[in-house]
Amino acid sequence: xxxxxxxxxxxxxxxxxxxxxxxxxxxxxxxxxxxxxxxxxxxxxxxxxxxxxxxxxxxxxxxxxxxxxxxxxxxxxxxxxxxxxxxxxxxxx
Amino acid sequence: xxxxxxxxxxxxxxxxxxxxxxxxxxxxxxxxxxxxxxxxxxxxxxxxxxxxxxxxxxxxxxxxxxxxxxxxxxxxxxxxxxxxxxxxxxxxxxxxxxxxxxxxxxxxxxxxxxxxxxxxxxxxxxxxxxxxxxxxxxxxxxxxxxxxxxxxxxxxxxxxxxxxxxxxxxxxxxxxxxxxxxxxxxxxxxxxxxxxxxxxxxxxxxxxxxxxxxxxxxxxxxxxxxxxxxxxxxxxxxxxxxxxxxxxxxxxxxxxxxxxxxxxxxxxxxxxxxxxxxxxxxxxxxxxxxxxxxxxxxxxxxxxxxxxxxxxxxxxxxxxxxxxxxxxxxxxxxxxxxxxxxxxxxxxxxxxxxxxxxxxxxxxxxxxxxxxxxxxxxxxxxxxxxxxxxxxxxxxxxxxxxxxxxxxxxxxxxxxxxxxxxxxxxxxxxxxxxxxxxxxxxxxxxxxxxxxxxxxxxxxxxxxxxx
Lengths: 93, 467
What we know:
The structure holds two protein chains of two kinds.
Chain A: H1 2-19, H2 27-38, H3 42-49, H4 55-85
Chain B: H1 4-23, H2 28-52, H3 58-78, H4 84-113, H5 124-147, H6 161-180, H7 185-204, H8 212-234, H9 237-261, H10 265-270, H11 298-306, E1 310-315, H12 317-321, H13 325-337, E2 341-346, H14 356-363, E3 371-373, H15 374-377, E4 386-390, H16 399-402, E5 421-426, E6 446-450, H17 453-466
Parallel strand pairs in B: 1-2, 1-4, 2-3, 4-5, 5-6
Helix pairs in contact in B: 1-2, 1-9, 4-5, 4-8, 5-7, 5-8, 6-7, 8-9, 11-17, 13-17
């Protein structure tokens, strides 16, 4: 438990250091992109959905897998769509 | 199929790619690559998981991935940029639900294998994951309904809410304690899940329209924390690291939003601040002391703008509602052809989620280096000839500076009142989200241009071209 808590706390600090420098103009993509990353729970869902042990565990896992995949695929795609629109001022116009 | 070392290595690389990807979000130049890096990290983690497991039932796995991937892609493709807040809320909800369900599946697995739970305290991660994940799910669902207008944006309060809220919280904590002292795990976890769903609903129902950006950011933080808790359940470090990163991101954004509105998170959660501005009655055009507003016309405004040296456009959510961002960009273009310097001043809560207005303007091809954050542009209003406020109100209300009785007192605002002339494009005299009258409307250097923002700006473009 303790080593995991260490991972957790250190990652929070890394997150704070890295993310506090994200400019306001990118806060919406930051939110949708980091939201997609929180869909990492998908790997837990994959394990559950692929299990052969019990019926309950498996089907709960399948629903979790669908929800997590929506989160991951949708999140990354919509973030990409937004970031594509951010353009710099054309020079010398 | 592969050794555990391979999987662990793949997860480590995935975690590094997430951090590198988020770091690239520090600049719009590299942001797109950053997002793709993170997506590659995710793909790597998924592939490594598929290979590390004994894939005995690939049909369910592939089916789940296909259905979820299809739904996610359709939602991401279809959404309009104005609808981004509700989409992010929905995705948050799915993430929270997934985390809670994974923890639930783990509990179900232990039950079905019949090996017993051992020390019930050993599963604390699962209880937390279910609690936070389910609160995120139901809270995000209500936020989605409110933001998409399927439900009123006004705060929904009822008597005894605090009592119900306190009872539910106590019952949720109580059920965890009961598990600790040896209560029936399965039924208590079901109760915990149910209570968490109710808690999420109770939490978001009373949140008014003005506070929505805060609550969307807050739910974002919760979805990350739920994923981290699931990491504890599965003893999986990549989940813990990623969840913590997202949690940190959400907490940071929640703080940014709270500071921008001078609100404490606690006060936001208590709720009741501000509703939809479109259902309140029209405000007065005359104050009790006899001061009145001065209306103006598109052609007068066009002349004023064309002969200005410097114009700052202040967009608010009203601009997004009217879908006027393309017209505003066109106006900026024709003004620049006249040799006018045009900048945009973006208040942090200009949209309905952090950074929302920037996305809307980017969609209309406004270059991001014309957009300025509040602290970077506030000193420039003094040297500005015209501040053109399009669909914003509370964020430029000087009452925030000096009127201690005002509910928005202390909120940082854009100093448009320091510009030589302020022009408000508004549909009517309705107050903003906060429901507060804006005395700036009655100042002698303020002109009101009434009408739909899109129509007004279109008229302005035509008139400026004719000057």
